[in-house]
Structures are given as structure tokens and as C-alpha cells.
Amino acid sequence: MQQYTLQSRWVAEGNALWYYGLRIGKNMHRNKIRLSKRQRAIVGKLPASLTDAEKRVLGALMGEVVVPVEEKRRVPASFAEARFCKRCVANDFMIPGLEFSEDGLCPMCHSAEEKGALKSILPTVQALPVSERSRFDVAVFYTGGKDSTYLLYYLAKRCRLRVLALTWDMPFMSDLAKKSIENAKKAFDNVEFISRTVSKSDLSVIYRRLMELSENTCACPSLAYVLFYPELVANRVPYFVAGNEPVQMLGLYYNRIAPTVAYTFSRSRVLNALINIGRVLTLRPPLKKGQFHTLATMKQLAYGDHFIKRLVGYENELVSNIVESIRQVPHLLAPLKRAIRSSSRTGNIPAFVHVDFNDVTEGGYDWSRVKRLLVEECGWVAPEDESKGLHTSCKIERCKDCTQFIRFYRCKSKMIPFSALEISLASRDSLRPREEWLYEMEHLLGFSLTPVEECALMRSYFEEKE
Known about the structure:
This protein has 20 helices and 10 strands. The chain is mainly α. It folds into 3 domains: 1-73; 76-115 and 396-466, no CATH class; 138-360, 3-Layer(aba) Sandwich (Rossmann fold), CATH 3.40.50. Helix 5 (146-158) packs across helix 16, helix 8 (222-234) packs across helix 14 and helix 11 (291-303) packs antiparallel against helix 14 (330-346). The protein is globular, with a radius of gyration of 23 Å.
């Protein structure tokens, strides 16, 4: 008799089926299908032959989710076996469960025109005022990587603002990033640099829990927020500015971390008015643009996801695991909670805003031109391999790629590897030759089913402590 099974990447979990992949068109974010009790019983015995009555109970699941065994798709085991998008470098090895349109486009390229306006979940700015209440106009997190160095250059040299540059001196900062930071201190005369560390004993506790949850120790930038938010409040810094490759913000949508409304929230007068009515009724100052985003970010780290966020299903697994890990060291959160209460009560909240690099860079944020500018103007030290365009400040970045990839590949995590989305989106409209993107994807990132060498470097941190 004909045997049936769940199609590849569909997994039964509790009272629902989950799809571990990125779907196409109207199904893009329809990764969860709730099951009735009778459907759960039938799905639970698959693979198996099915009676006509059982097929009727499964209904629309038949043919798409429940298929004959011989029609189950095979997940590629390497780039050589993968199917690639005709426009970008997205493929179904790097993103297992990636669906394609009839004309061979991945979901990112298929929806490019429709979702092209999704720039940032933060309010975007190009110009910021000089502060009359603080000796700083803006603050940035500075890692010595290419994105944070470009942001520092734009704010300090192009806009001539007084910048507070905040660096978390984490254990895995690359040597090139350290050199870039030292060179930046010489290049900028209107920037004050502050560096902070977490004690080895506290960091070891956080990292061990994070390893249990995420199988890596990546806690940037969340742990930096915890360290520096009290500093921003104490210095009355009016703006905290984020700047990333534009694709990093857009990737949040495709990873089902941020809904489309998140990209327009800051422009919604109705939603902001409702929030401020609530604040006025509780005798707190109304929020200015970007301040809601600051409080939401800091409160998530201090107290966890808001129940509404969990209810609608938009959760950031990466941040949730970091929050759970930081909670293992309660005294680290105490200053953050005090700063949240104080700033919310007084209205002294640094507005969290975003500079879109494409908007402020003539001709767009082109990697080759930007790299030359950073080297000449900021003393930035580039990676030895000139093809590397993503993530240049961390020694274990490939380890993060690898662990995220393996967990998603094996259906242990619902989070698509961030770098997989970012390189796909970056290559979509880039002027760089496709061959360069393919080289970076295959050789410089961590998409491997066996641990990359950086994973051993990460583990060595714990071996040193024992």
C-alpha cells in the first residue's frame, strides 16, 4: 500500500506542525499549522499508509504537507547539491527549506518590490541636532568593525557631532578590530571612547548558560546594552544611534522576528498617541521619537519578552536566550533596571534611532568604496581576505554562523541563520560580481555541517577557566 509521510522540513510539535524553512509568496510566514486531536493522531503514526477516511480528516494537509514517501524532498548536504536563486546567492543548503517561485526566485527576491520599503524597525535619521543639555550629541556602540567604524565616521566627521563611543571589550574581539579602535582614537578629535568589560567569573556563568541554549556564546550587542545604558542615562545623551548594513534590518522581517508594522510604527501618530496617553495618565512624560524603542529594548533585556509579543508569535530566539543567560547573574541587571526606572520617570531617555547607510552614502553603501574610505579616513584595518564583506570585528563570527546553521538544518531552532539572510539580501542588488559573493558564502562564512575551527576557539574560553 502507498506510504505517506510529512514533507521535508515539516515537524510535528505538540498540537501543531512547524515548517523549518522560508516559504514563498502568501505562505512566507505561514510556518505553523494547528492540528485537531484526530489530525494529531494520524500525523503521529507517519510514515504509514492512510485510509480514505484518514485522508479526509487531514484535508488540505494532503498533497502539500503530507505526501507519498517517494515525493519527500531531500535536503542538500552541500553547496554543490543546492538549488540557487537566479538573482541572488540564496540556496536551499544554506537555508534548508527554502522555497522558490516558478521563475526560480527565492522569497527575498520574489518579494523585493513589495518589501523594498522596509528599511528599519527604528526611526531613521540623517541629521541630528547639537545637544544643549549634554556634552555629547550622540552615542554609538563601537566594535572596530566596518559598520560601526563607518557610523562613527559619518557622525563625527561628516556631521561634526560630539560622539560617545562605547566599546564592550569582549573576549573574542579580533586583533584587527583592536587595531582599528586604537587608530580611530587618533583619527577623531570629537569622540570620547569608553571601554567596559564583564568580570570573567560573571561572563563564564552567562556563557555556559548560553552554550546550553544556543550552542554558542554570542551575546552582542545585548550585553553591551546592559553595560552601557546606565552610562547613557547618567550622561543625559539625547540619541543612541545604530548603523548597520541595510540588509541586517530587512533580515529581521524574513526571519519572522519583526512584522511589517514594526517598520512603520515610529511614523504612526495613532499608535504613538495611544502610548503617550497611557504615560500621561500615569504621570510620566510623553515619549519623543525613538524613546519607545529604547525602553522596549532595555526592558526586554531586563525583564524578558512582553506577553503580547509572545502571544502574536514574533519572538527573537537569539535575544531570548541571551536574556535567560544574563538572568543567571542578577547583580549585572540591577543597574540597568534602576536606569530604566529613572529614565522612564524623568523622560531622560536616549532616543534609539537608525542611520540607513544607503541613504547617507552617495551611490549607496558599496563595500569596495566604503572600505577605501574607512582605511584612509579612520585608519581602519581591513581583513586579509579582501572578499570579506560581512562581520569583521569578531574572532568567532564563523562559529556563530556554523552553530546557527547546524541548529536550523537539524530543526533544533526556528531561527534562520542571520548571515544566510544577510548575504542573500546583500547580493541581490549588489554591483559586486556574483562570484565574489559565492566565494564569501562558501569560504569566509561558517555554513558547514561539521564545526569550523572557530568553534574550538570558543570552547577554549571555558578550558582556560577550568
